[in-house]
């Protein structure tokens, strides 16, 4: 009260309240997100269902996620031009990076709804732990969830023009891995990142959480499928280095000095595809002990 709070009732609401906007309820059972997984309900199916509802006069939609994985919600948020940040530090870093905060959902037990560094012009919703877990679908919410507006994605040319050290990802469709790579790259002084079309969205909640919000200020762009997606880097004078655990690859410490260099990483398991490996200027490995073959 007096702080923009709105209490979320603990009882389940089956239908929109009287006098609310016309909403369409869409059930999409059996959705599985992620590259290479079988999907009984795909992103295209979801988009088609939403489009049909809007053409039918709906002013909004309710997506029933009870039989779905979290990937559907993340993709729905992306299509809507939004993303979710989780936890005080991550939310603060999204604000510091200039993203516009729309509204927050917090644990009602918090003595202070939002951190002092976070300015929320929209409503702040408070709910019990039980309701928070039902909304998020998991027990991890770190006491605060915030909804932000996305910005237009940087162009490849914009990102490449000012960078000297880059990472390029192929097929990294696990948000956790994307987050780890961004956080490590930022900590080690890498300037920017390129992702092929099969990579996970760096703004997905889990990716941003694992990266502790580093994704918001870290420059990145999408590139064409590899190996063709490496051509803009080569044209800009980058030496491309494919990382591999192969024993015949050169030690990463022995890489020749280069004014501009791009490390190319693949997904865990299969790594980079052979055509991408062959297209790179060099192949390098990180020496490791105890039989560990890759990080």
Overview of the structural elements:
With 295 residues, this protein is an alpha/beta fold. It has 9 helices and 14 strands. It has helices at 43-55, 70-79, 88-96, 129-136, 156-162, 175-187, 205-210, 231-235, 274-279, and strands at residues 5-7, 23-27, 60-64, 82-86, 101-107, 124-127, 144-149, 165-170, 192-195, 220-222, 239-243, 250-251, 261-266, 282-285. The strands form 3 sheets. Strands 10-9-8-13-11-14-12 form a 7-stranded parallel beta sheet, sandwiched between helices. A 5-stranded mixed beta sheet has the order 1-6-5-7-4. Residues 1-18 and 31-40 have low confidence and may be disordered.
Number of helices: 9
User: What can be said about the biggest beta sheet?
Assistant: 7 strands, parallel
Amino-to-carboxy terminus distance: 49 Å
Regions with little confidence, pLDDT below 50 for 5+ residues = 1-18, 31-40
Q: What spatial order of strands do you see in the largest sheet? A: 10-9-8-13-11-14-12
> What is the number of E strands?
14
| Average pLDDT over all residues | 83
Q: Report Rg.
A: 22 Å
Beta percentage is 15-25%
Helix-strand makeup class: alpha/beta
Global morphology: globular
Task: Please bin the fraction of helical residues.
Answer: 25-40%
H-E order: EEHEHEHEEHEHEHEHEHEEEHE
